[in-house]
Amino acid sequence: MDQRFPSIDDMERTALRRIPRFASEYLRGGIGREACLRRNRDALDQVLFDPCYLQEQEVNRPALGVELLGRAYALPFGIGPLGLSGLMWPGAVDILARVASEANIPMGLSHFATSHMSDFRATAGTNGWFQFYPARDPEMRHAMLEEIAATGFEVLIVTVDIPTATRRDRELRVGLSVPPEISVSTLFEVATHPRWALATLREGTPAFKNLAPYVPRGLSMAEQAAFLTDMIEGHVTRDILRDIRDQWAGKLIVKGVMTVEDARTALDCGADGVWVSNHGARQLDAARSPVEVLPAIRAALEPDIPLMADSGPRTGLDVARMLALGADFVFLGRSFIFAVAAIGARGGDHAVHVLREELHCALAQIGCPSVRELPRFLASCSRQD
Ligand SMILES: Cc1cc2nc3c(=O)[nH]c(=O)nc-3n(C[C@H](O)[C@H](O)[C@H](O)COP(=O)(O)O)c2cc1C
Q1: How many helices (DSSP H) and strands (DSSP E) are in the chain?
Q2: Domain assignment present for 74
Q3: Of 120, 155, 274, 370, whose CA is between 20 and 30 Å from 204?
Q4: Angle (nearest 5°) at CA 179 between 173 and 180
């Protein structure tokens, strides 16, 4: 236990000091005026539990493990996919892939990661899932899916909530580009963030390693980024999803679902599970929080349909809140990068440790014997049914 960082919030404060601004603004920010970012937090804070203290039997070792998609995981939370993680903290994916494997929790590798899928798969093992942004061009999409399957991934996450190029004020203000453009302010940022600079020297310039075979040669990084935006621009239509289902033999999860209708459509198109997410408040400032939509989506689906959720949780208690509202599993995104940036190679382990302890304390405090039983401890004012 690293006493300096008792919570993810403590890690975040240090991380944001250590990461140059051009990358930290990308990591921390939401879209627009960040009302959705605040809403994600506020909605979680409003989910309350009623404790049961006068128990018939002792409840001092609540069961935290869960089954998901036919596999046992040690904890009901995992590491979400973050694009460009190597820009935010060099080597973060490798560090977290090892954590996922050792802690027996899943981790999603972003299609736009700066680590190659085969390295990630080798470290994370079957705990590594692949997050896919479907290319509009069917041939390219098929080639990509073949490569992902050949690398050995068993779970594919299809993200559907980026139908159009995203416009975030913080990124525009700092002029985010990959790699960072050399300017006086970039050089100043790098010089004043020596840990980040040294780690970047060690790891090399970040690049979209999983997309290299599909991007025409000879393009500048700016041109590559424009090519990729164009490659995925547009909605993931039902036909595209069915086409992916036809080709992908493993488990298929649709990420970015925020309505009952989309959840049903995803399942009708052959998905094995649904991931409720507003992309960490990064796409639509007028979006509801997953906390607000989870109960209705849970109620609309068969109880055995795996339902995942993210966007906002920073504590083990927050994980418990989402589970109580109907999620089977919760992912955290920014939190794990904050942990690695603040602490280094053991940061991910420490984040898991903190979240596990907080979750354990929450269940033990309310008298809940296992994460599956959390819904019955929801305070009546938090029930939306
Ligand atoms: C910097 C950053 C990059 C992200 N990149 C991706 C991505 O490439 N693919 C994806 O499906 N989601 C991406 N997400 C969304 C996360 O997977 C996740 O939904 C979100 O971070 C959860 O919210 P949290 O950060 O509050 O935990 C990204 C989020 C952040 C903060």
Answers
A1: 17, 10
A2: yes
A3: 155
A4: 40
Residue nearest to atom 28 of ligand 1 (CA): 82
Number of folded domains that form the chain: 1
| Ligand 1 binding pocket includes 334 (Cβ within 6 Å) | yes
Question: How much distance in Å is there from the Cα of 93 to the middle of ligand 1?
Answer: 13
- pLDDT tens sequence across 131-168: 999 999 999 999 999 999 999 999 999 999 999 888 88
pTM for the whole thing?
0.95
Q: How far is the CA of 311 from the centre of ligand 1 (A)?
A: 8
Mutation test residue for ligand 1: of 34, 282, 283, 335, the one with most atoms within 8 Å of CB: 282
Q: Atom 4 (ligand 1): residue with closest C-alpha?
A: 82
Backbone torsion region of residue 47, taken as left when φ is above 0, otherwise alpha when ψ lies between -120 and 50, otherwise beta? beta
Evaluate whether 331 touches 309 at the Cβ level (below 8 Å): yes
CATH number (domain holding residue 68): 3.20.20.70
Q: Which of 27, 71, 277 is nearest to 158 (CA)?
A: 277
Q: Determine the Cα–Cα distance for residues 114 and 23; give it in Å rounded to an integer.
A: 14
Say how many C-beta atoms besides its own lie within 10 A of residue 258's C-beta: 23
**Structural domain containing residue 196:** 8-382
* Angstrom distance (rounded) from CA 284 to CA 286: 5
Does the C-beta of 255 come closer than 6 Å to ligand 1? yes
Task: List pLDDT tens digits, range 225-263.
Answer: 788 888 999 999 999 999 999 999 999 999 999 999 999
Q: Is residue 193 part of a domain?
A: yes
